[in-house]
Amino acid sequence: MIREIGHRALRRLGVGIATGAIVVLAVFGGSAASAPGGASATEVRVVTLPIANGFPLDLGIKKGFFAQQGIEVKKTTLQSGNDVVLALANNNGDIGYLGFVPMYIAVTSGIPLTLVAASEVEGISARDNWQNILVKGSSSIRTPGDLRGKTIAVNALKGVGEVMIKAAMEKKGIKPDAFRLTALPFPQMRSALNNGQVDAIWVPEPFLSQGLNLDGDRIVMAPGPVLARYWPIGGYAARSAWKSGNPALAQKFRTAINKSLTYAQAHPAEIRELLPPGTQNVRLPIWSPLVDRSKLQQLAGYAKKYGVITKLPNMKQLVPNSIASGLVLQGTVTNRRLLLALGAKAVTKLNVGPYTFVVTDSSKTQNFRLKGPGVNRSTPLKGQGRATWTLNLRRGTYRYWSDGKPRTKKSFKVG
Questions:
Q1: Average pLDDT, the chain
Q2: Is residue 95 a contact partner of residue 44, using CB atoms and an 8 Å limit?
Q3: Is residue 126 part of a domain?
Q4: Could you report how far apart the first and last alpha carbons of the chain are, in Å?
Q5: The domain containing residue 310 runs over which residues?
């Protein structure tokens, strides 16, 4: 019966189920991979996508995080979210890596999925985001408003690209019918833009960096950051029946992939080493084992509003309580400024629980130090870059400051 449901739903969906970060297999490659397991290791079949966003799985296998949980991963790389959903629906995989919009389409079309672990979020601006709208360098299009009456290429209609772009454009005051969307495979988009077939393209890495660095294109909008800072994109899901039948194994997988996500975020150079030559300098996402349920609910609302799904998914079933809820906090360090913010507001009070801290340090003389109950973390005083920590905050007062200006301290309460 699951085979019939899967094929019927996917025939109706067509290509619209493809994720927003799908890249052809030739770009990042892909082959079976497994953790070195002993006689007692349990095999878990993971279907994934050939993109850097999914590479914490590979790094976790390499580091032995799955073997430590007694799991041997049998990895299969597919080319689209459509393929991942179909593989799960037809029992050709246990856990799949895919975007949240394809998950919504699947569960509202009769393919019950349950999230096993979170994965990544988008950035806070066009400068650090890995999935943006590009125009030619010579284009007269300078702002999102200039896209009125223009054609934007997305990888699939009725998919995540359509949802994100329409929602972001509406937030900018531009009606969804003021521009046109057309479907093109990602590898064909740069050529279509250069040849004038389309006015703009919505592309992830590595096509984003290729367009910027090789073609001289410009970013005109980053839909995710327009909707909110650290917009959720994807995760690891399983058929609900598989997860309920293997609760301990699902928990062990979540433990291993969460450790992999945290390690990957702290060691981006090791992720880049897994990428083919010429693609190591692409923009990487922000990996976090936490989910922001309010943003996921917003995304589902957008998907329904724009006709990608006909009803809202059962979010409690799709995102169970076993997945830790948490917010992403933004730390900023410059020569003159030190701030910890949630959205656009400085943090003054938080609830007890897990949080992901993303600290962007652009100063060579200042750093960010956080100290409080159970926490003492810092960025290098003379270093620059981005640090990400996922921390469990306890009740009490937390203080943060720069070691370059130790007398100037800020604080927030947790309770």
A1: 89
A2: yes
A3: no
A4: 49
A5: 2-121+232-318
